[in-house]
Amino acid sequence: MTGTPRSSGPASVRAGDVFEHTFAVDLPGEACASLTLAAPGTSWRDARVAVVEIEVDDRDPQEVILAGGEEPTEYLRFLGRLAAGSHRLRLRIRPDLTASDAAAVTVHGVRPRSVGDEDPIASIWRHAPVVHYRAVTSPLDSLTSDTPLLLFYRTGSDALGTVIEYHLIFSHEDAGTDLPGLLARWGHTVDIEWAFRVTLDGAGRPIREEVQGPEHRTLPYAGGRALGGHPVLQVATLNGTFTDQVRSRFRGALGPACAQPEGEPREGVLQRFPWIYRVSALEVLRQVPLDPDPSPHSRGPADLRSYVYVQWKRPPGTELPLEAAVRVEGIWYTSAWGQPGLAFTDPDGESTAVKVPVGTDEATITGIALRAFRPPGAALAVKLVRAFLLDDRYGPRPSFAAGGVRLTHDQPHAVAWERV
Q: Which domains does the chain have, with CATH numbers?
């Protein structure tokens, strides 16, 4: 990345004010900005948010929904292709979309950058999609539910060329898997969906573009372009799938924040951006009735601090139904309660959560195990990447366990970690 990143702030921006930040780009390329923003007096817990509009050089704007509330949170947005030279970013509150008691937004920092054409990650930025916010049950559903929080990517190759796949993390989901199923099968309360996939030939030219459509169908992309050639997607359903036909005028150009970490499940991205756990937990508290007196023997949804979160990594293409177990003071508790329908099975299902007694902490957890619901046909090595609890503010505490396990036809269950 090149350019002259500068920080400005903190500055308080009220309705009617315009915050300006000028910056210089050394080389032409894809520009982005990391915006560290807070909205005092707002909270995703109560669906009271602030929305800011940003634009560069009087181009078409985009909106940033401050789901992080009054906590200073970094929102990464791409700005489109910019020429070398001086540019001006403007930020203002959208009073028509902002909670009435949100008096101001605090700008803690603005860090613009440019990704030059020769940068190894230039193609990652060049093809990132512009995402129009969901408008299914209201003119802007994303103001209160399932708001897009982060974009990450995977790279690979096939017979045609290099493949870049973009995944979007939503704060939760309004349809599809219920909360106990999300925790057992996926080990999180967000919704992670692949959104757009592009295949590039040897010269870096796109030769195939695809979108994840309703009912999770892979569809050819036939939509428009924005911000200098970026594909345009519309969040189309209550469970986070997309169309290339725009319905909402409100949009966000979420920058590709990182690649999926090597040797980790998708959820490894969440560890790099722990504020996402808190935002999702606040939405769950607002939307899902939780057991007031949770029991680890019941699959009923409980306060998210009542679970141990366990992340694994297994060989590609493995779809064996698995269940994790956590030993607390000599008693084993399992993620699926012995029910195969709650196993984590999908190739991307490599994380789970185990409901444990209230008051459990790292010191009382003495073992983590893995069990296959059916014996594997061949030996299967599974890596235990991490295990952790949530803190009082629903952020991830440091991992307390890592290890590995080898499951075989004769031994379909084994302990992956024990406290020494």
A: 1-119 (2.60.120.260), 121-178+191-264 (no CATH), 303-418 (2.60.60)
